[in-house]
Amino acid sequence: MKVAIGGPLKVAFRPWVEGLEHIPAEGAAILASNHLSFSDSFFLPTMLDRKVTFIAKAEYFTTPGIKGRLTAAFFKSVGQLPVDRSGARGAGEAAIKSGLEVLERGELFGIYPEGTRSPDGRLYRGKPGGLARVALASGAPVIPVAMIDTEKIQPPGQVMPKLMRPGIRIGKPLDFSRYQGMEHDRFVLRAVTDEVMYEIMKLSGQEYVDMYATAAKRQIAEAAKADKEAEKAAKAALAQEQKQQQEQQQEQQTDKEKSGS
Q1: Among 7, 102, 128, 137, which residue has the least CB neighbours within 10 Å?
Q2: pTM for this predicted structure
Q3: For position 155, what pLDDT does the model report?
């Protein structure tokens, strides 16, 4: 990926990066990043000398057809781990297991605490189930990362990416050893997650929203659906009004013809 994709990405987009000195030369560490674009998982590994393993939804690896096979081959080639989001605990347990396996090998594990891409460029509340539990169970340091302007490169609905310079800011490692052995305390998990999100917010300069991005996406989808239904109802009402006007005009024309005869 670094050779086939990373090289052209560097040449075409010239991404800038700050804080590379905070990435350890060896040993396990967790990179906790905001999530603005699909391209985040390409730009961040491209700018680091070490391999970063992210998790990806299992659908990327199981979609049938030629496109599905190509997608699966691509994600496997860049070292992404499939996560099955089905089951009682869903992606949370799968992410924890995958993350611990990566960290046990002394590698870098990348995770997006928001759980999904931001729908509007703002920073949303982090989910405590994955990041905090992996950090406390592994004892690995958490390095906050802020992706800058990646959402502007290819906004939803735009086919061709815009050539512009995205950025990456990497913060100082966070040590949560004081909470060791408390990975099942929900208040501790919340505190760890909020501390990481605060550091990401300072690095990114994003507006913080104290709700989950998944909930925000549902609200946006519901609002869009309501607007569409309202527009449809307005068009139907206008069409009905125009039909009534035409009928009235026809009746008036008929009355004139009768009176004239």
Answers
A1: 7
A2: 0.81
A3: 77
Contact between residue 120 and residue 159 where contact means Cβ atoms under 8 Å apart: no
Residue pair 29/176 in contact by the 8 Å Cβ criterion: no
| Structure tokens that stand for 242 in this block | 């125009």
> Confidence class of residue 89 from pLDDT cuts 50, 70 and 90?
low
As a whole number, mean pLDDT of residues 12-28 equals: 96
Reference 144, options 183, 88, 194, 94; nearest CA is 194
- H helices then E strands: how many in the chain? 8, 9
Report d(CA 185, CA 157) in Å as an integer.
42
Cα 244 from Cα 224, distance rounded (Å): 30
Residue 15 near residue 166 (C-beta atoms within 8 A)? yes
**Residue 30 contacts residue 143 (beta carbons within 8 Å):** yes
| DSSP helix/strand/coil, 52 | strand
* Rounded percentage of the chain residues whose pLDDT exceeds 70: 90
Q: Give strand ranges (E) for the chain.
A: 16-18, 29-33, 52-57, 81-83, 108-111, 123-124, 142-148, 167-170, 208-209
SS (H, E, C) 170-231: ECCCECCHHHCCCCCCHHHHHHHHHHHHHHHHHHHCCCEECCCHHHHHHHHHHHHHHHHHHH
User: How far is it between the farthest Cα atoms of the chain?
Assistant: 101
Q: How far apart are CA 20 and CA 142, in angstroms?
A: 14
Residue 255 has pLDDT above 90, yes or no: no
Residue 145 token pair: 């990362």
User: Do 123 and 162 form a contact (C-beta atoms < 8 A)?
Assistant: no
- 131 within 8 A of 220, measured Cβ to Cβ: no
